[in-house]
């Protein structure tokens, strides 16, 4: 983003004019070197948080205790963090205490991997004391300093290492890998939510299976604070994750629950424990239920009505996702669902009614027209009307619907 880069450079220039140091650091320097899109630009400086807040007009004290101030320049946001070291690692987690230091080198030294410990100055020069650029070029993940110590300080780094290896298709350097395997049980100190965040990035990347294999190989997966059914019931599905889109994210996670052998009910306690939101769990659940519905009808009733009623129950987005999921299912399941897969998209495209909101009549209208009192029959009738109009068997006009309603209502009386 050239606009963001430009503002970042004026931010650095301002710091330097005021007599301080300022560098781009961390993920943005790494991503730029890799020619990957840069989402946010982090800046390190020897100015204290208070000084940063005096220098810039628009600031937010985001993480002032950790030295981080958000600076807004022409609408672009930057996290400006005072050079610091971290100490007092209690429980192998992110430290409570940070100490500000005067030296960029000290700040780079606390960072996890060599590729994340590169600073770039305003003139484009690099400060790269741990040869991160070399490791980047060779595709190597290597801890800064002694890997055993670094994982002991903060066990999340093990998972970050696997995540980076997976997303970038990089190799974990042998000493770093050995330390990771050796220290793996420390991962139990890391909260489920932070594990989930790393897993989400890994699964959304281009080589999710590589990450899953590393989690299994290192046995990190069995020490994590979240439970995963092991071994997976259908491991071959995990190898297909990269063959379906990364967005919407629920798509790949649905394939994971299928691989683990969890149905739409069984997956709920797991999703909860993995700290996914209810909204996300709901998306996965709808896709699983749509799949289960189609599968249940597959051998005797794989017709348009069944498909349309599933679309109405689980939503058109879910139906679209099911079409994307189908190609990576096992051959056997694909065969059973071939008819739905072949026609589903067309049936979906032809639909223009997806819920009662799209129907030209509501419950009040029906009661008035039939001069009847409400009851369970009303919901049933409305559902019939919805299905019939959605399937094109009934015109979506008040007239046609009322005529149909009268017929059905009378039938019910007799
Ligand atoms: P992403 O692409 O996920 O944002 P990132 O490397 O930018 O990757 P962030 O969590 O944004 O990750 O962290 C920014 C920087 O802070 C990292 O590049 C690294 O230098 C440092 N860092 C982050 N987490 C840790 C950690 N657990 N231990 C040491 N350094 C860390
Ligand atoms: Mg980042």
UniProtKB/TrEMBL annotation:
Swiss-Prot/TrEMBL keywords: Magnesium, Metal-binding, Nucleotide-binding, Nucleotidyltransferase, RNA-binding, Transferase, tRNA processing
Cofactor section: Mg(2+)
Domain tRNA nucleotidyltransferase/poly(A) polymerase RNA and SrmB- binding residue range list: 169-220
Domain CCA-adding enzyme C-terminal residue range list: 252-405
Single biological process term from Gene Ontology: tRNA processing
Annotated InterPro entries: Bact_CCA-adding_enz_type3_sf, CCA-adding_enz_C, NT_sf, PolA_pol_head_dom, PolyA_RNA-bd
Leader sequence residues: none
GO molecular function per UniProt: metal ion binding; nucleotide binding; nucleotidyltransferase activity; tRNA binding
Highest taxon of source: Bacteria
Record bears the keyword Nucleotidyltransferase: yes
Residues annotated as domain Poly A polymerase head: 23-142
Entry protein name: CCA tRNA nucleotidyltransferase
Organism, scientific name: Paenibacillus bovis
